[in-house]
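User: Sequence in, structure out. Go.
Assistant: Echoing your sequence, followed by the structure tokens.
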Amino acid sequence: MRGQSALAALLLVAGGAAAPTATAQASAELEGDIAPTHDPVIIREGGLYHVYSTGLGDGDGRIIAHRVSTDRVHWQAAPTPLPALPDWAERAIPGATNAWAPDISYVGGRYRLYYSVSTFGSNRSAIGLLTSSTLDPARPGYGWRDEGMVVRSNPSDDFNAIDPNFIRDRDGRQWLALGSFWSGLKLFALDPATGKPARPGEAPVSIARRAAPVGAAAPVEAPFLFDHGGWYWLVASYDYCCKGNASTYYTVIGRSRAITGPYLGKDGSAMMQGGGTLLLAADLPEKQRFRGPGHAGHMRDADGTDYLVYHAYDRENKGTPTLRLARLRWGADGWPVAER
């Protein structure tokens, strides 16, 4: 099911079915078009789950990859929202051929899909924005509109404008978190009407970083913020992705009463000092199948269940980055545990 007609058939099934149940929780159960998947996010519209992720880079026009499922278990390829990089992106980031780490949200009657444009190891980067009134190609109003550049970074900046994540706080203010390496993760206040920075040129708020000697790498990236239990929660990835079975990525979480931080782990360690609480780690040594779990995105389903979608490198499939899904179970201490 790789064409528009196949997606339409799946949408018809989803539209006529009862709401999906929360029976499938273990990532090992996922089937279908699940690899390669890198930097996924997940959202539900009606009876259909949508996962967007970094483009496949295989020349098939999927600058952003898109998959759908009616049950969170069986996944099918779906039409990309971005078949080619916009002209502005090609001009702004010479050498870019793909879009990375999209983020999806529903804001003011339209879906916002933020995405990154960069080249590996550089902070000459930009974040773009697409919007559509629906994710369903069969519905009136479907179609992704290019809203242009949102944030840009240059070699003279101390941050890297990739890995965007949108959040609306409890006061209705809108924010965009982003960042990879350099001086860490940042938070930009947004203009609700445009989804772009409210005060262009204003320095962003720093929410996480990892100290490193001058000239050394400080591996922290992929922020994702969500609200639960009177706290804002920040999920981030530490160490190195993109090395197949040798990837050392792992995922941490911290919380704060204020959207701007400070974000602290269960032990009080500050994410501005490389702290936080471990949330996702590689499989135990006796299994050693899925390595480097990271770049997690959060979704709260219709029944209130929280999920994390993420990628990990499958040792049984040549280290291919693979779609994974975990349910978050909230403990008596108010902290989450990822059930995989």
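User: And one key feature?
Assistant: DSSP finds two helices and 22 strands in the chain.
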